[in-house]
Structures are given as C-alpha cells and as structure tokens.
Amino acid sequence: MKSLLIACAVIFMSCASTSPQKSSAMQGNTELLVSESQGGADTPGFKIIKDETDFLNIFKGNLGRVDLGKESTTNHPKFPKNKKVVLYNLGTFRSGSHKIDEIKNVSVKNQILYVEVPAGESSGGMEIQVMSNPWIIFTVPTDYQFTSVELKYSK
C-alpha cells in the first residue's frame, strides 16, 4: 500500500511539473503543414502568417504554382483556424537533404520558440553539391508569444 502511494505521488509530481506550453504541443496543437526542400529564403528566419490570403501568397511566391483565381486546382493544405501559423526558412545549404518531415516538440522559453526536429542522417561519403533553400510551414497554439525561432535537432 505504501509503494502504491509513493508511485501515485511520483506520477502526480511529474504531471504537475510539465509546462503548459509543452503539454499543449504534445496534445497535437503543433502540426507540420508544408515542408519543401527548395524555394525558401537564403537566410534563416521566420514569419507569422496572418490570414489565408497571406498563406496562399507564400505558395505563389515560393512555388509559383498557385493562381488565386483557380484555387481548386492547387495542392496545398487549408489555412488552420485557431492556431498561429509560422513560415520558417532554414537558409541555404550546399549539399545533403535538409527537408524536415516531422516536428517532435515545440516549446517557448525566453521569447524563443524552440522547434525540435529529427537530426538528418549523413551518408558519410561524398555528396553532390546542390544548393537548397528548404522551408516549412507549421502551427503552434495561439497563446505562444515569441520573437525568434530556433531549430533543435535530436536523435
């Protein structure tokens, strides 16, 4: 009985110490909407996408495939409601694949949005030198307040 009480106390303490922003991300409030290996900016940076028109203009500018008069023929996700939508440009890379396929976790600390993504695997050999400018669009809860975004690579 005593060990059961201790186990319950440990579970309660671990739940109580979890930050609310981290727990909301774990509940599915973060979603990777788009990940492309080409078409982003030369330097890393982010932009908060305010509305659906801005969202469609991102596709038109980055991919050149959206004609605002013909939305039915495009292949892009719907603009999410009740979430903050973030465009993040990873910058320029000279070789390797830097496309992000998954977001493991997001958290905010000291006005910085940390986005945890899986670390890319390196082949270890010679790679073809191809310039790439990857970019992603993802969502975070609307209550997240941040002034910069940083990627955290994890295994």
Summarize it:
The protein is an alpha+beta fold.
Verbal overview:
The protein has 155 residues and is α+β, with helices and mostly antiparallel strands. It is built from three helices and nine strands; from the N terminus they run H-H-E-E-H-E-E-E-E-E-E-E. The protein has helices at residues 2-16, 20-29, 52-63, and strands spanning 31-36, 45-49, 84-89, 93-95, 105-109, 112-118, 129-132, 135-140, 148-154. The strands form three sheets. Strands 1-8-3-2 form a four-stranded antiparallel beta sheet. A hairpin with a 2-residue loop joins strand 5 (105-109) and strand 6 (112-118). The longest helix has 15 residues, at 2-16. It is globular and about 45 Å long.
Question: Strand portion, in percent?
Answer: 25-35%
How far is the N terminus from the C terminus? 39 Å
Order of helices and strands: HHEEHEEEEEEE
Largest sheet: 4 strands, antiparallel
User: For the residues shown, what is the average pLDDT?
Assistant: 77
The strand count comes to 9
Widest beta sheet: strand line-up: 1-8-3-2
Structural class: alpha+beta
Global geometry = globular
What's the helix count?
Answer: 3
Helix content: 10-25%
| Rg (C-alpha, Å) | 19 Å
Low-confidence stretches: 12-27, 64-73
Give a quick set of tags describing it.
alpha+beta, 155 residues, globular, 24% helix, 3-stranded mixed sheet, 32% strand, single chain
Secondary structure elements and pairings:
Blueprint: H1 2-16, H2 20-29, E1 31-36, E2 45-49, H3 52-63, E3 84-89, E4 93-95, E5 105-109, E6 112-118, E7 129-132, E8 135-140, E9 148-154
Parallel strand pairs: 6-9
Antiparallel strand pairs: 1-8, 2-3, 3-8, 4-7, 5-6
